Amino acid sequence: MADLETIKYGVHDGVATITLARPDKRNAVNAQMFNELGDAAEQAANDPGIRIVLVNGEGPSFCAGIDISLLGQLAGTRGARFRSFVRMAQRPFAVLAKMEKPTVAAMQGHAVGAGFQLGLACDLRIAADDVRMALLEVQYGIIPDLGGPHRLTRLIGPARAKDLIWTRRSVHAEEAERLGLTNRIVPADALAKEAEGYVRELVAAPPLPVSLTKALIERTYETSFETELDRLAQAQAACLESEDHREAIEAFMENRPARFHGR
Predict the structure, then answer these.
(1) What does residue 29 show for φ and ψ, rounded to 5 degrees?
(2) Least crowded by CB within 10 Å, which of 93, 99, 171, 174?
């Protein structure tokens, strides 16, 4: 991966960390960050040594949305040029949502617009108690086009999704947890430590059933219950035939920690 200017990418013990690194701009997303986020997400998705992906942001804000200067540059863009930009911007959100590995967003301060949608693209969200989530696009005469409406509707239902998009109101930590927008709320000064502990919990699980359940859950709304049962049976058969399943049973019987290898 080429030298990065707007994000940081690191790997440690099976965890890839993608850090938004424009704290002086509250990590607002410009065109370069869209590209670098896409490259980093694809790198993590394709690296067999990566088990979990953590997305976080430097400074007091997770991400304040799209850089306003970029909106100005896009004004009046039409046709193939605009479609090309949108596909480029959507790439990291799609990769995070669709990769086989679990993705976790650690969110603090402002998580609005593209920043909120980045959190929604991840499977799980751990948030600081100072978090403020909002989709502000409508006030600029545009829509959230980075996957936010799809992901938000699945999480909280169509009426609540419309409410948040149309009113542009902010959701703070307590309501975010109540609505199901976050999995855990933690003190702001403990977010980094708690996020690290959270991903370590996930890394400890065998990769095969984790990736299979992610795929199955993501397709739940697209399939009948009968089809879902068939897919569950096929996935379970793959788990039972895996080396990790045998290792899990042996580790339990021998009263020792399991050593999983994703096979």
Answers:
(1) -95, 120
(2) 174
